[in-house]
Each structure stands twice: as structure tokens, then as C-alpha cells.
Amino acid sequence: MKRRNVLFSFCLLIALVSGVNAQSRGDDAEQERTPPMGSPAAEAMARQLIEHEKKEHRENIERAEEIARLSEELQRDIEKRADLDAQDARRLERIEKLARRIRSEAGGSDMPDALKAAPTTLEQAVHRLLRTAKQLSDEVAKTPRQVVSASIIEKSNEIIELVRLIRRMS
Questions:
Q1: Which of residues 148 and 47 earns the better pLDDT score?
Q2: Which pTM does this prediction carry?
Q3: Do residues 162 and 128 touch, judged by C-beta distance below 8 A?
Q4: What DSSP line would sit under 24-72, residue for residue?
Q5: What does DSSP assign to residue 85?
Q6: Residues 157, 114: contact at Cβ < 8 Å?
Q7: What is d(CA 98, CA 85) in angstroms, rounded to the nearest whole number?
Q8: Is the pLDDT of residue 35 over 70?
Q9: Which tens digit of pLDDT belongs to each residue from 46-80?
Q10: Which residues are CB-contacts of 77 (< 8 A; sequence separation ≥ 6)?
Q11: Which 3-state string (H, E, C) describes 102-161?
């Protein structure tokens, strides 16, 4: 009985040692693929990643500003005439595409029933679209690039739903 326990302990020890050895070999392989910290290559890769993230953030700010601008143009046109024309349809399409991109960059996805208390008239819907677009633009501009914002995702979803509602109303 004692001999069986010793044999079992020995086997267990061998298994642990071989597992640790295999794991350390895996770490060595990982270290070979990535340059050591402090090396010029690692620093260049880190700078490149930071620059890419800054560029993406600037582009998101520009997208949000474009949504606000297009929404203002849409509201001006709706005030002049009570219906949508082909140019307005293109604006709505562009607004939706930009909002989807912002939402995607923020890590969000489609959210059913994102529109609470839906507007009942076209004018109300366009006014709310403009108000939400300005809020989104402000929120994207003030949110640091490292932060995932639920508010940005929520406002993007609301804009997408408002665009769909406006299309149905026209």
C-alpha cells in the first residue's frame, strides 16, 4: 500500500514537471515571436498602435460631426417642404451608415426598441434626430479613445431607429 502511494506520488510529480516544462517552452516560443519590451521594434509597434487608435478616434469624431451636419440640412429641407426628396433619402442613408460605424467602433450592436416614445410626425422625428445627433457628436468628442461608452452606443442605436422611422413616415 505504501509502495503504491509512493509510485502514485512519483508519477504525479513527473506529470507536473513535464507540464511546467511544456508550458515554459510555450512561453519561450511566444517570446521569440514578440520583440522584448524596450527594444526599438517593440517601441515602434506600440507607437504605431497608439497612432492607429488616435486616427480611429479622430475619424469617429468626424463621423459624428457629419451626422449632426446632415441632420441640420435635413431639418432645414423639411421646414421648407413637408416631404422627403431623393437628396434627403441619400442623407438618411449616409446618416444611418455613419451611425452604424460609430456604434461598431464603440463595441455595440443592434438593439431592438432603442427608440423610446417614438415621435408621431415627420417634423418631430427630424427634430429629435437633430437633437440626438448633436448629443452624439458632443459625447464622441468628449469621450477618450480608450473608453467604451454605453451612451455612444445608445445614441447611435437611437439615430438608426429614427432614420428607419423617418423613412416609414415619408
A1: 47
A2: 0.72
A3: yes
A4: HHHHHHHHHHSPPTTSHHHHHHHHHHHHHHHHHHHHHHHHHHHHHHHHH
A5: -
A6: yes
A7: 20
A8: no
A9: 889 888 888 998 999 999 999 999 999 999 998 88
A10: 84, 85, 87, 88
A11: HHHHCCCCCCCCCCCCCCCCHHHHHHHHHHHHHHHHHHHHHCCCCCCCHHHHHHHHHHHH
